[in-house]
Design goal:
The chain has 350 residues and is mainly alpha-helical. The chain has 13 helices and 4 strands.
């Protein structure tokens, strides 16, 4: 890697890290001032005992986009594949999620009201030009691609972004979990960008900014957390990861490998809720991270286990062919099945 490139890459992750570290205490004060707090008596699935400020996602949001606009304005990164319309569209959609999430944290919106903001956010980026024209052939061992039509591409992007939004939304149940997974996923997107994109690509820089900001927030979000991401932060992170996995060369499969276990958990939980006649968006303690606690793991052990699984599958994914990635996805499903079986056996013995 060119030394100048290394300096710029390092500057990106350091800038967002320091911004997040500096901004989080300020955001914490604002949350307390306006009583945007997570109060444990409000829901039985809470694992903390005292009120904790929400709105931590604003520190990550500001750190990331401040860095993006600095790198764009001073032309420190290659934004040739992200025109101004798409750039502002991504900003507007992420801002929509942050505002909607903060309103939800303050007023505890119903699930049918919460989904309004993700739908608007996805619509904004689609209208701004975010699209996908091909996918890697999963059966090819040479990296061949499959061209897809315009309308099918829109459908894929729509469901992919909504899936990522709800994956990180439902994953946000243990201190540090989402911030750590976001750091891992963003770093893998950056690594893959070194192969697919131009040097100093906007995608790579953006991923580093997200990784640095998430890591900076983790300083305050590690157990016992003094501030939470909040609804806005949790959905913003998944949404932005979903966008970065599409922009400037598809990295969807690599991102899916990192986020695969939480994504499968979301799918399984939604299916169980529908079968039992409950709303698919209603909160409960049936998510994998809560069930790992029921299995006997400590909070820290559960978080580290999920981090390590994400790290392991992401690492294998970047050294695998498209065919190999499909094998890894099958292995991921098997891992999820084994964990679910162990949890079921544990619950029957209890």
């Amino acid at each position: 890697m060119n030394d100048n490139y290394f300096i710029i890459y390092f500057s990106a992750i350091l800038l967002s890290f320091l911004l997040a570290v500096g901004l989080t205490p300020l955001v914490k004060r604002v949350a307390r001032r306006f009583d945007v707090m997570d109060k444990p008596q409000a829901a039985e699935r809470k694992i903390h005992q005292k009120p904790v400020p929400f709105m931590g996602g604003w520190a990550i949001f500001i750190a990331v986009f401040f860095g993006v606009f600095i790198f764009r304005y001073f032309r420190l990164a290659d934004f040739s594949l992200i025109n101004d319309c798409l750039l502002w569209g991504i900003f507007a959609s992420c801002l929509t999620l942050m505002i909607g999430g903060t309103i939800d944290d303050k007023y505890n919106l119903k699930p049918q009201q919460q989904i309004f903001f993700p739908l608007i956010a996805v619509a904004i980026v689609l209208l701004s030009g975010l699209h996908i024209t091909f996918i890697t052939n999963p059966l090819s061992q040479t990296g061949a691609v499959l061209l897809i039509g315009k309308y099918l591409g829109v459908v894929i992007v729509f469901f992919w972004l909504l899936g990522m939004i709800y994956t990180t939304k439902f994953l946000d149940g243990l201190d540090g979990l989402v911030a750590g997974v976001a750091t891992i996923a963003a770093l893998f997107i950056f690594i893959v960008s070194l192969r697919w994109d131009a040097p100093l690509s906007a995608t790579g820089i953006w991923a580093l900014l997200l990784a640095g900001a998430s890591l900076g927030f983790l300083v305050y979000n590690w157990r016992p957390a003094s501030i939470f991401l909040g609804e806005g932060g949790s959905v913003f992170i998944g949404f932005l990861l979903g966008i970065l996995s599409i922009v400037s060369g598809s990295k969807i499969i690599t991102t899916l490998l990192v986020m695969g276990l939480p994504a499968l958990d979301v799918l399984f939980v939604i299916i169980r809720r529908l079968i039992s006649g409950k709303s698919p968006f209603a909160g409960d303690r049936n998510h994998l991270h809560y069930r790992l606690l029921n299995l006997g793991l400590s909070h820290t052990q559960a978080v580290w286990l999920l981090w390590l699984i994400a790290l392991a599958f992401g690492s294998l994914g970047i050294i695998s062919t498209s065919y190999g990635k499909m094998i890894l996805i099958i292995c991921l499903i098997l891992v999820m099945g084994i964990i679910s079986a162990a949890l079921w056996v544990k619950s029957k013995r209890a």
